[in-house]
């Protein structure tokens, strides 16, 4: 659920990029961060694992304007895709407002795509974001690596991953193709959901003490800042 920070006059949303390992999630965020004006984006933060990184940053999109006088601030996260980082992925999903599922178009990754989507659905139910009878979290599908000579047909990817016909985009993330379009659709879907699920006010930050720990153990992203969005940049 979106959070309102009245002190900063902002409303905060969290979008998580999910998908199989090395499918292009990190590349998406790196391209987006590079394209955004420095004065409208936060610092890219990273928590490294042995094989992959969890990245997150926030930004204020100029073109989306305000909601009831509040600026919209989006927090973008990736998750480590490898199987043995399941708990890290669950932690990152806490408080998400929307999902971008980045699928790998390589034929050898077809099974990994399906397993990653099943993993996502299981985690969403566990953290209460897709409760039975409730509204589904907005999902955008991105079919990455469309430049591969033997890329899986979009129709095959759609049938396996997106039978409910959520918005989808073809992409070559390393070249920046389809990256901005995917994010723009995700932001709009999250804002549209706000009309039926109002935001709640952010809790005030805890008062630090001399004996309080300053950081949690890596690699799980810290649940700091508004609704687990990581440190504000």
Q: Provide the structure class.
A: alpha/beta
Shape: globular
Helix content: 25-40%
**Total count of helical runs of at least 4 residues:** 5
Account of the 3D structure:
The structure is a single chain. α2 (86-93) packs across α3 (110-126). The chain has helices at residues 25-35, 86-93, 110-126, 154-161, 179-194, and strands at 3-5, 10-18, 45-48, 53-59, 66-67, 70-78, 98-104, 139-144, 168-170, 200-201. Strands 1, 2, 3, 4, 5, 6, 7, 8, 9 and 10 form a ten-stranded mixed β-sheet that branches. It has one domain (3-228): P-loop containing nucleotide triphosphate hydrolases (Rossmann fold). The protein is α/β, with parallel strands linked by helices and 233 residues long.
Q: Could you give a short description of this structure?
A:
It is built from five helices and ten strands, in the order ββαββββαβαβαβαβ. It has 233 residues and is of the alpha/beta class.
């Amino acid at each position: 659920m979106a959070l309102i920070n009245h002190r900063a006059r902002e409303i905060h949303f969290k979008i998580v990029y999910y998908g199989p390992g090395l499918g292009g999630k990190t590349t998406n965020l790196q391209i987006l961060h590079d394209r955004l004006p420095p004065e409208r984006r936060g610092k890219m933060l990273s928590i490294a694992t042995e094989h992959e990184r969890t990245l997150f940053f926030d930004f204020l999109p100029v073109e989306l304007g305000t909601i009831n006088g509040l600026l919209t601030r989006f927090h973008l996260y990736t998750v480590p895709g490898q199987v043995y980082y399941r708990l890290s992925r669950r932690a990152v999903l806490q408080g998400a407002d929307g999902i971008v599922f980045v699928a790998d178009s390589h034929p050898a990754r077809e099974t990994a795509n399906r397993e990653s989507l099943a993993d996502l659905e299981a985690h969403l139910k566990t953290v209460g974001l897709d409760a039975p009878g409730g509204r589904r979290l907005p999902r955008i599908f991105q079919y990455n690596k469309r430049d591969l000579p033997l890329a899986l047909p979009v129709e095959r990817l759609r049938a396996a991953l997106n039978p409910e016909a959520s918005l989808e985009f073809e992409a070559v993330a390393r070249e920046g193709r389809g990256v901005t379009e995917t994010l723009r659709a995700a932001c709009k879907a999250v804002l549209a959901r706000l009309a039926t699920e109002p935001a709640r006010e952010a809790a005030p930050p805890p008062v630090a003490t001399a004996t309080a720990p300053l950081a949690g153990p890596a690699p799980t992203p810290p649940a700091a800042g508004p609704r687990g969005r990581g440190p504000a940049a």
